[in-house]
Amino acid sequence: MLDRLLNLFLSIVGTPAILVSLLALCGLLLQKKKLSETISGTIKTMIGFLVLTGGAGILQSALAPFASMFQTALHTQGVIPSNEAVVAIALQKFGTPTALIMAVGMIVNILLARYTRFKYIYLTGQAMLYISCLTAVILVSAGFGTDATMIILGGIFEGTLLTVTPALCQPFMRKITGKDNVAMGHTGSIGYAIAGLIGKWFGNKKHSTEDIEVPKSFSFLRDSTISIMLLMSLVYIGLTIAAGPAYVESKLSNGTEAFIYAITQAGTFTAGFVVVLQGVRMILAEIVPAFQGIAQKWVPGSKPALDVPIIFPFAPNAVLIGFFTSFIVGTLSMFVMIGLHTTVIIPGVVGHFFCGAAAGIYGNSTGGRRGAILGSAVNGLLLSWLPLFILPLLGQLKMAASTFADTDYLIPGLILGNLGEAGKVVLVAGIFVFVGAVILTSMYLNMREKKVN
What we know:
Blueprint: H1 2-13, H2 16-30, H3 35-74, E1 80-81, H4 83-115, E2 120-122, H5 125-141, H6 148-177, E3 183-184, H7 189-202, H8 224-243, H9 245-252, H10 258-297, E4 303-306, H11 316-340, H12 349-390, E5 402-403, H13 407-422, H14 424-452
Helix pairs in contact: 1-4, 2-3, 2-10, 3-8, 3-10, 4-5, 4-6, 5-6, 5-13, 6-7, 6-12, 6-14, 7-12, 8-9, 8-10, 11-12, 12-13, 13-14
């Protein structure tokens, strides 16, 4: 019975469309909307998220051969950061504590949002699952058993992290979206905030990536669908040449002519991007008004923290600039690791796309084109070198062919893991210091705000 309940819980929170549509339903009911409006809003929210996740899935499927061609062209083997792969391995042993940590973490997130100024409800289910899994792995590696103490500690840590990371990004989200009604709920948030700061410190806000001048004869390139298709076609064709048409036809395209396959994959990537944009429009049109019910009744003033593609429509040029800059930095870092004879971290295309693109958008919001390039370059360094440093802290998973990919796993994981190596007492103290620091910071900011007013 317990296993069935855990599976049901994991299924709900691991399916963003179901989780967010249920919250939208609650919000609409709390607002006492008409039955027709409640049904319509709930269904449209669910469909919007299915469109969004479907588009993200199309993007990932189009990037899979990209990664294969890249590795074949460079004849490189090593560890590939992939959250999905490493979590699939870890859940075989840590499935139950992962689910329970996530349940406690959601409760802690709601409580902190209710009683502190950091009013962000984290709604990206798969991200919560992965952070819970990382927390479970590190706590067990630190010597904790899979008992109630470990689950409560892990949930407190995760819930606090899920509250803080959207808060770090919100000043930049206001600049990106021009509003303050939605937050970032993705596991690259620390990296995005760093990219925003890099753009602020070293960029030039006056020259946005979205204001790139295009000659009249090439005005069609202003259409993001066309520019993405043409650029990705060049990239896939170049990779096909580098990997060899024979390899593509025998291993990837199922016999389809290599260059036709390359152009089709570029088109598939572009189609995925278009689908994501449509999903974002539907979600923003439905979830924000529906969420007002929860904000008014349960967590006054709260905002939904949503998955990273939510910001892609606001700066399509920065998406591509960020992706390629981050990936190029990851590739250069790989060659440095080969030269240093360390474990080689092969750049994960999916991670560099989603996180690099977002870092480019954040950098652009504060520092224009230069900010987009520098912000995503720093992001690329973080995604390349932090996985190397966290490997020794992952216990039995350190020998796996994959590892965690994003900054919100890597930076907190490194801190938590090093505290664990210092001893259980130090680790427990560190978790409570983290929670205390968040609460005290909230109190200080509230007091300062009152003085100003």
